[in-house]
Amino acid sequence: MSQLFKDLERARVGEGVELDSLLAAVKWSADGLIPAIAQQHDSGEVLMMAWMNATALRESLATRRVCYWSRSRGKLWRKGESSGQQQHLVSAALDCDGDTLLLQVDQHGPACHTGRRSCFYVALDADRARVSSEPLIDPDALYGKGQA
Questions:
Q1: Which of 41, 44, 84, 111 would bridge 90 by S-S if both were Cys, CB 3.0 to 4.6 A apart?
Q2: Is residue 11 part of a domain?
Q3: Is residue 3 part of a domain?
Q4: What are the pLDDT digits (tens) for 44-102?
Q5: Residue 99 annotated as binding?
């Protein structure tokens, strides 16, 4: 853990550091990424997990529209750019180790490419997995046939 995060452990409410200093202390992966968990701000529902790089995080903070790094596309991905199901940033926080982001968002429509509200719809039991929710929107309607 960086010294900056150690110092923040003892900081008082309202104390802070410049964003550039904080981002320099974040535990980015070898690819320059950090996991970002999106949670609906008013209900607490966990919607999805995606990856951000520093550029995506800075853009999200500046525009209040959530932007991720798409590992499959190899480029920035503004949530909802192809489906219309945007996420608007309410707040963002780093965990105590500086290696995970929690985004409080206002999700418009489904968060998942399957058309479900949340990406976490495969419930696990001791001996079985089951689908726990129906799609809100047919993925073909979101992305066009064969695009999801």
A1: 41
A2: no
A3: no
A4: 999 999 999 999 999 999 999 999 999 999 999 999 888 888 999 999 999 999 999 99
A5: yes
